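Morning run. Coffee first, then this:
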Amino acid sequence: MANSLNVMIVGVGGQGTLLASRLLGSAMIQSGYDVKVSEVHGMSQRGGSVVTYVKAGENVCSPTIEKGEADIILSFEQLEAARWLPYLKKGGKIIVNTQSIDPMPVVIGAAKYPEDVLCAIGNTGVEIISMDALKLALEAGSAKATNVVLLGAMAKYTGIDYEIFENAVKETVPAKFLDMNLQALKLGYEA
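And here it is:
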């Protein structure tokens, strides 16, 4: 890992962003870094926007990430990737699940879900890595493992050894879901 790493994990309530941030924080701590995690819940209980900041370095004072400071944005949903894009620093990476979840204005018919969100993000010149994490999670055994698939995909870009991410999963995930989540992590890492 570099001297510091600023990661934003963004998505919609119920997608498992908080577990992903705990796993990432654990891996960073096991790598010997000072880590701060800050959870910002929108209307997470109702499928609203959720963002978590995970910062690691030698001495991290503040858990928040300002616009233009994120090394990596890990997005569980396309529109959330677009919403938080201004926080990505120049040369940063955005990893996006191709899944789309209709926000409340779309659900009630007051708006339409934008077309070609990933194309629009790519047209900004940022490095975008998109994947169907839901498909890989189902392959691992459950749609609920989408968060760990995405974490596995991001692990390659952190500079932290894969085995440390495996340890974080082993220490955090309940035993009855462990094999499925280890498979999800591996599928994401290899994608």
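The chain has a mean pLDDT of 92. Good start to the day.
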